[in-house]
Every structure is written in structure tokens, then in C-alpha cells.
Amino acid sequence: MNIESLRDYCLSKLYVSESLPFDDKTLVFKVAEKVFAITGLEDIPARVNLKCDPERALELREMYPDIVPGYHMNKKHWNTVYYNNFPDAMLQGLIDDSYKLVVSSFTKKKQKELGLHS
Fold it and tell me: CB-based contacts of 61: which residues, under 8 Å, 6+ apart?
């Protein structure tokens, strides 16, 4: 996956916006104003910070050398994924997990208002 594909995938999700709040090369994706992914537009190697369940975060870091504690983030809840060598489906799954974790932090009322709760 490249940065354009990552961007397209993140933006395909409901109520996602993108912005450059820190500088002109750090792209932030939010669902209903809460961050679920951060990536550098010029990072080499390419990387993305994704929210992750703390126990799963540790498991992933042990299994994959390209998944490390979140760069400039809460290390317990965020992973940095160097994604050049990851299959697209796996990276998409990690993005999905991050998005779902953020959505699950909303109240049930807000989830229902946004159409994100069944």
C-alpha cells in the first residue's frame, strides 16, 4: 500500500475527515473529530500511527518487527506500523480496528446519531 491508497482507505470510512493540524506533512484522520490514524506524507520508510487495544498492541509488536510502540503517542494505546512490507488486507484490518476503537469510545447516543451503531 502507498500513501495515496492509505489515504483513500481511511477516507472511505463514515464521518472521516483529514487535516494537517501540526505541519504541512503530517496527515491526521479523524472520525467525528477523534483521531484514529496519523501518517507522515514524506516518511521514508512509510509509517502510520494507529490506535490499538493494549493487549493486542503488545501481541502485534512481538509478532511483527515493523510494528512498534506509537511514535509520539501513548505507547500503551498506539502502534506505529511501518507498512511498506505489509499486505494491504492486513494494514486495512489494523486501520479498521483503530477506527472501531475510536467509534466505540463514543456514547451509544452519539454512535446512533451518526449511524455508527446497529
Answer: 67, 68, 69, 79
Starting at the edge strand found earlier in the chain, the sheet holding 47-51 runs 16-19, 26-31, 34-40, 47-51, 78-82, 67-69
Q: Partners of 37 in the beta sheet?
A: 29, 50
Q: How far apart are CA 114 and CA 45, in angstroms?
A: 35
Mean pLDDT, the chain, rounded, equals: 93
Stated pTM of the model: 0.93
- The pLDDT, as a whole number, for residue 118 is 53
Measured distance between the N- and C-terminal CA atoms of the chain, rounded to whole angstroms: 31
Dihedral pair phi/psi, residue 35, rounded to 5°: -65, 135
- Amino acid at site 118: S
